[in-house]
Amino acid sequence: MASAYYPPEPLAPGEEWRLLATDRFVGAFAPSTGMHTMATLWRIAAEPSLGLDALVGAIPTRGADAVESFAIAGIGRATVFVVRGEACSDVSVAGRMRRVDARGAQPWYVAELNEVDRFALGPLQRSPGDLRPTETDLPLDGGVVFGPWLGWARDIVASKPVPPARPVTAPSPLSELSPYDTNVLGDLGRRAASLTRHRTEPPATAPTPETAGAAAFRLGDRAPERVDAPVYVGRQPRSPRVTGPMLPRLVRVESPSREVSATHIELRPTPQGLVLTDLQSTNGTVVRQPGSGVRRLESGESLPVAPGTLIDIGDGNVIEILAYR
Amino acid sequence: MTHIGQSSPGSRLPLPHRGGAITLAWGAATDVGHRRQVNEDSFVAEPPIFAVADGMGGHAAGDLASEAVVNRLGGVIADGFVTPAAIGLALAQASHDIAQLDGTALVGAGTTVTGMALTMSGDDPYFAVFNVGDSRVYRYLEGEFEQVTVDHSVVQELVDAGAITRRQADNHPDSNVITRAIGFNEPPMPDYWMLPVEPGLRLLACSDGLSKELDDERIESLLAAGAPAADTATALVQAALESGGRDNVTVVLVDVLAVETN
């Protein structure tokens, strides 16, 4: 009955992708994805009133639970693929093969394809094969399992009795698109200052990956956070204008004596590394850099900051810059 | 004209994760104006999305374009507090919908969109203000009034470049030419601003039918008068009509009545 399938190969714990399937969605999530996250995603995927945007919106893309790589397909008359990081989807469109990968887009890349016969979701470092289930593959009717990748084929459904109709995604003008056409909804990330760790082996179809040294910060004894978008720290921080899909991170700190300004500093990721800017704070910013002692930033001044740097914005609030593995 | 949501004199919204809640009031009003035959504006006024879209294009295409955007944004409502990615996806899907509208291939159809969406940054509630085009979001808090969004317009670019002054911009012949939109076969490129949800905060999203009829001082004085959100929305539209009402005019207003944190 199922149109999803997977190879039940024994794998090392760090190599098991989390594979999710319902009759409306299938997805493959990187091995680091926590089961708590998978449980949440399963509940959303299994809820008929929620759509693909709800499922994608529920995937954490930053912080400790961030899912760095995933590939999701929304099954309808057209098939919508959402891919991130080191995941991809190999798709057979009216008999022709193509690979949909994230191409460094942040937070993910979206493509919509008609006439999809078969596809497979999984890691980039994988041969697509011929996208047909073999005798050893197991069907996946619905649920979450572990495996190296997830396959889906429309012809499995066609050759078997048709299952009773269940709600599918609402009809949309998208279904009127001409066949064989790639309809990219938008490369939402190419303009973003993305800080994706670059791939070791870019696929032939991908443009040159953006390379950058990734960084993280830690405020006091809070958990470290990766910097993948501008960070604003202050008593009641707000952000200036930001263009692109990566919304800034706002970090609020306690400042009983109001020594910290409402929006005190910015940490901005750039291809050359992290840049600290004092945002015209009232009381200034004190920086201790490894090997060069302590200095005070003038109001509005910027400074590249390396891992090991300590930033004091007042009232005991100290931010440490870390390297991100 | 498509609208989603009803005004509310006060609704308590629990925060995701850690407990706590915020209480918002909101109102919306729209009018076709004195000169136009069709109201091509649309709006959403229901947590977590408050937005205004001003459609452009002949033969009612603009109406369909603004409808496409509010329908896609409306699709996000069921999910509670939004992620920025959900807004980006909704706008990308709307852009795609507009490209598929019947009969618009030759004339082109598009829309502005601006508004505010409730989101979380860590444990703190925020408004993610978003903008594409020349509709605007204004912020009023404790006597301070400011325009949050920056127009995507030729005139704004001239102001930014120092070629003309702000006051010259108001009467510039190219004041209707915008540089970004949803539709016209362009991928959407929204700007975002993150504003903390604070007690007393009042945010106004409006189409240019308001901002081209009323100057900043007039808008500020109506916000500062302190009438409830729904009444203020109606008063703003009424004032724009009395000043000429040359375009469709639409406003969505949100008040933060209370913030409870744990």
CATH topology of chain B: Phosphatase 2c, domain 1
Assess the beta-strand content of chain B as a share of residues: 25-35%
Alpha-carbon distance between the two ends of chain B: 41 Å
Task: Characterize the main sheet of chain B.
Answer: 8 strands, mixed
Average pLDDT level of chain B: 90
**Oligomer classification:** heterodimer
Largest sheet of chain A: 7 strands, antiparallel
The shape of chain B is: globular
Q: Concise description?
A:
Chain A is mainly β.
Main attributes of the structure:
heterodimer; A: mainly beta; Tumour Suppressor Smad4; 2 domains; seven-stranded antiparallel β-sheet; six-stranded antiparallel β-sheet; 3 helices; B: 262 residues; alpha+beta
Description:
The complex is a heterodimer of chains A (325) and B (262). By secondary structure, chain A is mainly β. Chain A has 2 domains: 2-195, no CATH class; 216-322, Sandwich (Tumour Suppressor Smad4). Chain A is 7% helix and 38% strand. Chain A contains 3 helices and 25 strands. The radius of gyration of chain A is 23 Å and the shape is elongated. The model of chain A is unreliable at 157-212 (pLDDT under 50). Chain B is α+β, with helices and mostly antiparallel strands and 262 residues long. In chain B, the strands form 2 sheets. In chain B, strands 1, 4, 5, 6, 7, 8, 11 and 12 form an 8-stranded mixed β-sheet that branches. In chain B, strand 4 and strand 5 form a beta hairpin. The longest helix of chain B is centred in the middle third of the chain and has 16 residues, at 84-99. Chain B is globular and about 50 Å long. Chain B starts with a strand and ends with a strand. The model of chain B has no long low-confidence stretch (mean pLDDT 90). Classes of the chains: A mainly beta (325), B alpha+beta (262). The interface between A and B is large, with 42 and 37 residues. Strand 17 of chain A pairs antiparallel with strand 12 (191-196) of chain B, so a sheet runs across the interface.
